[in-house]
Amino acid sequence: MNAIVKDVMTAEVVAVRRDTTFKELAATLREYRVSAFPVVDDMGRVIGLVSEADLLAKEALAEPGVVAGLLHHSDVRKAGGLTAGDLMSHQVVTVSPGDPVEQAARMMHFLKVRQLPVVNSGGELVGIVSRSDLLSVFDRPDEDIRTDIVNTMFRHEFLVDPRQFTVRVEAGVVTLEGTPETVTLGRDLVRKARHVPGVVAVHDRLSYPDDYPVVAGPLF
User: Fold this and answer.
1) Is 140 helix (H, G, I), strand (E, B) or coil?
2) Is residue 71 classed as helix, strand or coil in its secondary structure?
């Protein structure tokens, strides 16, 4: 039920080799309209990442002596780069096909990157995932989300009768009503519903015991 990277990644990846020339990189960038290329070795393993920003450094810093005091050493190096090996970033953050989409989204957000190469257990490139790929999980129809919650989550995961609950989904926002047998079950249902692909937020309207504090509003 939970979306994984394999579900949303692009499998046909535009990758380059270490010796790909600057001119070839620029032409490929224009042709495929991508913002970065994974750099792979002869075995297809990811060894770096070269972005459009790396290529722009050559034009922007054509005369680095003018602002040399303000530049990082790597910027100066990239300004003189002739190949992907010269321009690429060596510290590449990757994800695996089986990683949760939520994990990839957190990495992308906190690291301020636009895409993540997807590699298998041997480090070989098998895909790439972008911001738009991760957001695609929110394209699911409301009825599909509701069916997932009622049939998959309630019936099969928690083994509860969905007829004792009311589930409404509007624009990806789920509202749960009903009376769970225990407080723990109710909290688990709300928490699990938040992770159903396509869910934007969950409104907890379950009926808990009087001494159980419920915080109004969506659960994130």
Assistant:
1) coil
2) coil
Architecture in CATH of 5-137: Roll (3.10)
Domains of the chain by residue range: 5-137, 140-219
Query: Minimal CA–CA distance to 94: which of 49, 43, 132?
Result: 49
Tens of pLDDT along 133-178? 999 888 899 999 999 999 999 999 999 999 999 999 999 999 999 9
CATH number of 140-219: 3.30.1340
d(CA 149, CA 199): 10
Spatial separation of the C-alpha atoms in residues 160 and 189, rounded to whole Å? 10
Task: Quote the strand ranges of the chain, DSSP E.
Answer: 16-17, 36-40, 46-51, 115-119, 125-130, 165-170, 173-178, 201-206, 218-219
Q: What is the mean pLDDT of residues 80-103?
A: 90
- Tokens standing for 24? 């070839």
39 touches 15 (CB < 8 A): yes
Report the distance separating Cα 183 and Cα 129, nearest Å.
38
